[in-house]
Structures are given as C-alpha cells and as structure tokens.
Amino acid sequence: MALGASPVLVRRMESLFHALFFLIILLYVMSAAWCTATAAAGIKQAASDRAALLSFKSLIDDDPFGALLSWNNGSLHYCRWRGVSCGRRHPNRVTALDLKSLRLTGLVSPAVANLTFIRRIDLSDNMLGGRIPEEFGSLRRLRYLNLSVNSLRGTIPSSLGNCSNLQLLNLRDNKLDGEIPPTLSSLSGLRELMLRQNMLQGTIPSNLTQCQELQVVDLSNNFLTEEIPPELGYLSRLISLTLSYNNLTGAIPATLGNLAQLQNLDLKFNSLSGSIPDSLGNLSSLIYLSFGKNNLSGPMPPSFGSLPSLNMLEIQQNSLTGTIPSTLTNLSSLSQLSLAVNNLHGEIPHFAELPVLSFLDCTSNHLLGTIPISLGRLSSLEYLLLGMNNLTGEIPSSLYNLSSLKSLELFENQLEGTLPSNIGNALPNLQVLSMGINQLGGRIPASLSNASGLNELELLANAFRGTIPPSLGALQSLLWLQLAGNRLEARKPSDWSFITALTNCTSLRALQLQDNLLQGMMPKSIVNLSTSLNYLSLAKNQISGIIPAEIEKFINLTYLDMSVNDFRGTIPIEISHLWQLQYLDLSNNMLSGEIPLTLGNLTRMDKLRLSSNEFEGAIPRTLSSMLMLELLNLSNNRLSGTIPKEVLSISSLANFLDLSHNLLNNSLPLEVGNLINVGELDLSNNKLSGEIPDTIGKCTILEILHLENNLFQGSIPSSISNLRGLKELDLSKNFYSGQIPASLDELPDLRNLNLSFNSFEGRVPMKGVFKNASEVSLIGNPKLCGGIPELHLLKCTSEAFAAKHHSDYKLKII
C-alpha cells in the first residue's frame, strides 16, 4: 500500500497556508496604511511648519533688506527660504531659524512654537517688539535661543523653564521687566544666561545653582536688588559672572572664592558693602576683576597677589583703607590697575616688576611720599594717573624715559621743580599732560610741540613764569589749554604772539588764561581762534582795549569770562549772537553805556555777571527771556529806574539776584514774590522807597536778604516769618518804624540780623537770634528798649508804660 498523507494532516496544512496567506495580506495592507498615515502625518507636519513660518512673516511690519521676500514663493520649498534650515533625518522639519541683524520690525509670532523640531532660534539685533511668546516653553528640542538687541517688553516667560535642552538663553539689550523666573533653574543643561541691559527687578534666584553646566552669567545693567546669593559660589563650571550696574547690596560672598575656573568677575556700580573676601585670592584662573563704584571698605586683601593670570584689577570709587599691598607687585600679567577714589594711604609700591602694566590709576587717595623712581622702568606704561594725593618732591626724571606714555596726570599734589626742556621729545606720544595745582615753576617747555598728539595741556595753579611759547600753536590736536593761576607774562605786543599761533589749533575747545600777568591790548587775532571754542577765560589779568565785535565768530561758546581786567567801551551788540552762551562774566572792568537789550536773546544763559562797571540806564526787561537764568549780578553800576517786574518774574533764578549799589528807585514791585527759588537777594544801596511788599513771604527759599541803605519805610511785614530758612537779614539804614515783629525770633536759622539806623520802637524780643548780641545789631533806634543786657538798651519798665497810659486816659477825659 502506497504511503500517503493523512487527510486530517492535509486539511490542517491547507488551513495553515490559508491563515499565513491572510496574515501576509493583512500585514501588507497594514504596512500600506501605516506608510500612507506616516506620509499624511509628514505632509501635515510639513504644512504645519510652513504655516508657522508664514505666521512669523505676517507679524513683521518692516523688512528693509527684503530678507523675507523668498518666503511664500510657491516654487521654492520653505526649507530653502532665507534664514530657514531643515534637518537631515527629517528633511521637511525646520530645525533652525536665523534672521539676525536684518532690522526687522514687528512682533514675534507665537506660531513659531509649532516648529517642534527646531533647535536654534536667532532673531538678534533687530527691532522686534511685543512680548516673548509664552508658547516657546513647548520647544523641548530647543538648544539655542537668542532674542538679544531688540525692543521686546514684558516679563521673561516662566515657561522657558520647560525647554529642557536649552544651552544658551540670550535676551540682553531689550526692555524686559519683572523678575528673573525661578523656573530657569530647571534648565539643567544651560551654559550661557545673558539678560543684561533690561529693566529686570527683584533678586537673583538662588536656585540658579541647579544649573550646574552654567559657564557664563550676565545680569548686568538691570535693577536687581538685595544680596548676591552665596549659592552662586557652587557653580563649579562658571567662567564669567557679570552683575555690574544693578542695585545689589550686602557683602561679596566669600563662596565666590570656590569658582576655580572663573576668569571674569564684574560687580562694579552696585551698592555692595563690607570688606573684600580674602578667599578671592584662590581664583587662580581670574583675568578680569572689577568692584568699582561700590561702598566697599577695609584693606585690600594681600591674597590678590596670588592671582597669576590677573590682567585687569579695578577697585576704584570705594572706601578702601590701608596701604596698597606690596604683593600686587607679583602680578606679572597685570596690565591695568585702578585704585582711584578711595582712602588708601602710605607710599606707592615699587611696581617695576610688572612688565605689561599699561594703566596705573591711583587718583584721589591719601598717598604720600615721593613718586618711585622705579616707575620709570615700566616700559609698557601708557597711562600714569596719580592726581589728587599728597605726593611731594620732584617728578623723577626716570618718568621721562616712558616713551609710550599717553597720559601723565599728577595734578593736585605738592610736587615741585620744573619740567624738563626736552619733555616733548622724550614723551612724543603724550596726549594728556595734567600737572595743575602743584608747586611747579620755571618756563613752559617749547618742546611740548613735539608731542604732536597732545590734546590736553593742564598746568593751572602753579608758579610757571615767562611768556607762553608760540610753539604750542603746532599742536593741531589740542583741545584743552589750561594755564590759569600762574605768573605768565605778556608785557609787550610780541609776548601775545602765542594767540596768533594758537589759531592753528583748529579743534581748540577750551582756553584758560585767567589769573596771570597778561597786560596790554588783546591782539585782534584772538577772534581767529577755533570756532569750536566753547570755553574762554581771560579773567584776572590786566588786559585793556575793547571787546571786539568779531567775538560773534565763536558760535559754540558756552562760557566767557573777561572779568577783572581793564576793558573799556560798551558791550558789543554782536555778543548777543552767541546763542550757546550759558555763562557770561564781564564784571570788574570799566565798561560803560547801556546794557544791550539784545542780551535777552541769549536764552540759554545760566549765569550773568556784569557787576562793578559803569553801566547806566534801565535794567533791560528783555532779560526775562533768559528762562534758564539762575544767577544775575548787576551790582555796583549806575543803573537807574524801577526794577522791572519782568526780571523779578524769572522763575529759574535760584542762586542769587544782586542789584545792589545802583541808583534804582521807586517801590519794590509786588512781583518780588515770584522769586520763589532764589537763595540770596541783594537790593541794598539803592534809592528804593515805599514798604516791603507782603509778597516777600513767598520767597521761602531765601537764606540771605539785603535791603539796607534804601528809603524803605513802614513796618516789617509779618509775612517775613514765612522765610524759615533765612540766615542773614539786613534792613539797616532805612526808615522802618513800629515794633520789631516777635516772629523774627522764631526763624530757626537766623544768625545775622541788622536793623540798625531805623525808627523801630518798643520792646526787643529775647528769643532766637536776639539771645546773642554778636548776631544782632540794633544801634541807631533810640526808642527800642529791653532785650538782653549785652545790647545795652534802656529798660522797658511797666511803670513807664502805665504812666503813659494813665496820662493818655486823663487827656481823653479832659
């Protein structure tokens, strides 16, 4: 019998084959369906990315460079649009949006958050406004977010803490406000956090220490307050920490000394107090250290000498005490050292072992002794600033070996000696030479002209003598020439040749020659000086002649002082063309004629002094156009007529108004009450008459009031008691009558009261200023009585008053 398969087995095999065939068909159908679904999803997601980009474009108001012109081009795939990048594994998904520095304006669309594959967004350096979309918090793949240098407002979205892969967050230079979200601590991979130049408030979140990958933190130029969290000292990877220009208080945390990799520590311009932690000497990688403009006190830590990489050390404008640590001479990499404006004392260390030191600033301390000769070995030194100390002796000749020196500032010390005749040859790169307020003498070296880049020469308040060298005219970069307060001479016309030479200095802005021995006629060439000149002072010399009309050429002049000379003639009308003028002093000359009405055109005038001349006529009402005028002095002239009420209505007058020693007459206008900001008012030695207006009580800022030697009469107005800040009151030599107001003894600051030579009568108060005979003068008022014994007045007896009263009563009955 032939062998054959069992019918049952055959049926089972057929069933299995059918099932397998069905399964294959099912898998094929499912695979096709999955591919179709995947393709559909891809198409849908691609459409979503495209829509998100178009939404971004729709909120852009201006695109001056046409950066987005290619967007929405039907023939160009969106992955090829400018600024758009797509992935390799997912070629239709946007992974980067880079549109920096294109001057785009408008808003940032929340639809950008639909770009779920995006890793990088850079919209920096544009003009985008509005808020940062809260929806950005859903971008879990985002690693780089740079929205810096825009005009974004509002708060930083707390949702950004959900961007778990974020490594860089740069929102600097915007207008963001509110607090730094504590949720940023969730960004465990964050390496750079830059939020500077915003309007952020509140405190620095202490939980930022959870971001252990942080390398750069910049929170500067905000309004952050309270203390620096000590926890920041545990960010072990930190390379740069910048917290400058905030309102931070408290001490510098000693824990910052743990940051072994820190290269930059910038805490300047805050309100930090206390001493500098010695632990900062452990920061062996530190390159830049700035604590400038705080309230730090105590000595400088000697441990700073253990910072081998330190290149810049700035601790200026604090309250540091003690001496400059000698250990600083170990800092072989140091190029800049600024210790200015502290309370450091002692001598200047020998910094000769600092081969790359280029900037040394110890200005405004209490340093004493001589300038170390060894400083002359600092061959890289470009800036040596030692002004405003107590340094003595001569300037070491070794300093003139520093041929790289650009700025040498030794002003306000007690240095003596002379400047070497070859200084300009020795220091050819000099740009600033400031030696003012010392005891230097000799002649000004003509060789200074060889320092062709010199832009500031300041030698004021010394004892330099001789003539001013005309060679200074070769300094074509000269901006500031300050030679005031010396013994410089000009006795004959040729001595004035330096003025003609200076006409070559076409950028000259300030010329200070006051308080010297310059004599004779001012050369006509002075009007050919640079039209950039904004400061000209010839005061306190013996210069004669007239003020030239050509002075109108100095169209940028803001300060003009020709006082205390021998100028004659009138004020040229052309001076009224100096529209920028803020300060004009022509006092103490022999000028005559009337004050030009056109002076009122100088609407920026701040201080006007024309006193001690021979001006006559009326005070110009046009002066009331000087709406910024704070000080007006027309005293000691021959001015006549009524005080213009318009002048008394200049609301900006604040320092003082002095019209004394003139021939002004009639009554004092009621408008005197408009001088509500004036601190000193002097109308003495005129011919003013009538009563003091009651409106004087409105001048509540007054501290000094002089009305003596006039023709005033009547009683002292009660409103004068409103002048609570009054320190000095002189009403002497008038015709006042009646009793002295008791309210005068209630003026708390009054220390000088002169009521002499009037017709006051009755009892003298005994409180306030009247308690001290050295502070009050009452002579020439024979009807006064009482007061303290030191005033030597008659007693006010009750019997005398009673007798007088009884006599008057009897007369009435008769």
Automatic annotation (TrEMBL):
Q: Which residues form the Leucine-rich repeat-containing N-terminal plant-type domain?
A: 47-86
InterPro entries attached to this UniProt entry: DNA_repair-toleration, Leu-rich_rpt, Leu-rich_rpt_typical-subtyp, LRR_dom_sf, LRR_N_plant-typ
**What Gene3D superfamilies does this protein's entry cite?**
Ribonuclease Inhibitor
Organism lineage reads as: Eukaryota, Viridiplantae, Streptophyta, Embryophyta, Tracheophyta
* GO cellular component terms given for this protein: plasma membrane
State the membrane topology: Single-pass type I membrane protein
Protein name stated in the entry: non-specific serine/threonine protein kinase
Q: Where in the cell is it found?
A: Cell membrane
